[in-house]
Amino acid sequence: MNLLHVDSGILGGNSVTRQLSAAVVDQWKARNSGLTVTYRDLASAPLGHLTADHLGGNAAGLDAGLKKDVAAGAEALDEFLAADVVVVGAPMYNFSIPSQLKAWIDRIAVRGKTFRYTEKGPEGLAGGKKVIVVSSRGGFYNAENGLAAIDHQEPYLRAVFGFLGITDIEFVRAEGVAVSPEQKQKAIDDAGKAIAHPAFAKAA
Ligand SMILES: Cc1cc2nc3c(=O)[nH]c(=O)nc-3n(C[C@H](O)[C@H](O)[C@H](O)COP(=O)(O)O)c2cc1C
Questions:
Q1: Domain 2-196, what architecture?
Q2: pLDDT number for residue 138
Q3: 7 C-alpha to ligand 1 centroid (Å)
Q4: H-helix or E-strand spanning residue 180
Q5: How far apart are CA 192 and CA 130, in angstroms?
Q6: Interatomic CA distance for residues 89 and 13, integer angstroms
Q7: Which of 10, 17, 93 to mutate to test the pocket of ligand 1 (most atoms within 8 A of CB)?
Q8: For residues 39 and 5, is the Cβ–Cβ distance under 8 A?
Q9: CA 37 from centre of chain
Q10: CA neighbours within 13 Å on the CB side: how many for 67?
Q11: Ligand 1: does its nearest atom lie under 6 Å from the Cβ of 33?
């Protein structure tokens, strides 16, 4: 079984999502023998923004830097397609996701590879995977405080992975980490408990 681990937070050692996504991967390793893990750090090795040249399909005329980036995007797509489980560290940045993570999504959402349009509408081609999103945000976004409507992180990730055909999407959340040191620790501890639960990280 292949597990793809993707981190996107820019805060290195202080990152909540990095700490928790590593804990998720450790659980999968502990509970599933023979797991192959591929790691991609989108902050230290970012993919470039998508351009018309990337979509052109002909690498011959591209300069060396762009050729390298196109090849890196193809590698990212292959890793995603080969994965049975995808663990994504996804902090909320400005109500959405880090641009590094968006750049990765732009490389894995590829017409004819991970989705296609049919007469009946769009069809995801990357089904059969499990996606676990490790999410962290400074505040809280829910119906009670009226801020759910500006959460463009979780609904967006659900939509994009769903569009690619993935129905098994799970969120591990650490919320309110900027509210106080106590709330941050509580959020990390609660997420840690969810990760340590016996039902978590078991292959179907
Ligand atoms: C550039 C930046 C933008 C952020 N934007 C938001 C935001 O819009 N809403 C929010 O609740 N928290 C926001 N935060 C707080 C982060 O979501 C929170 O600190 C999270 O833990 C960051 O992930 P990390 O700990 O893995 O680095 C932002 C943090 C950074 C660094």
A1: 3-Layer(aba) Sandwich (3.40)
A2: 98
A3: 14
A4: none
A5: 19
A6: 13
A7: 93
A8: yes
A9: 15
A10: 7
A11: no
pLDDT of residue 94: 98
Any idea where the domains of the chain sit in the sequence? 2-196
The tokens for 52 are: 């018309």
| Angle at the Cα of 127 from the Cα atoms of 119 and 10, rounded to 5 degrees | 115
CA distances, 190 to each of 23, 95, 166 (Å)? 13, 22, 26
Using DSSP, state whether 54 is helix, strand or coil: helix
Whether 105 contacts 60, CB under 8 Å: no
> How many Å separate Cα 171 from the centre of its chain?
10
> Which tokens sit at 57?
């399909």
Q: Coil, strand or helix: which one is 151?
A: coil
pLDDT at 11: 92
Positions of the chain with pLDDT under 70: 57, 204
Please name the helix (run of DSSP H) or strand (run of DSSP E) that holds residue 40, with its range, or none.
Answer: strand 36-41
- The predicted structure's pLDDT at residue 150: 98
The pair of three-digit structure tokens given for residue 34, joined into one six-digit string = 């023979």
Q: Which long-range contacts (CB under 8 A, 24 or more apart) does 63-67 make?
A: none
Q: Which one of 137, 147, 184 would you pick to mutate in the ligand 1 pocket, going by the greatest count of ligand atoms within 8 A of its CB?
A: 137
CA 198 to chain centre: 23
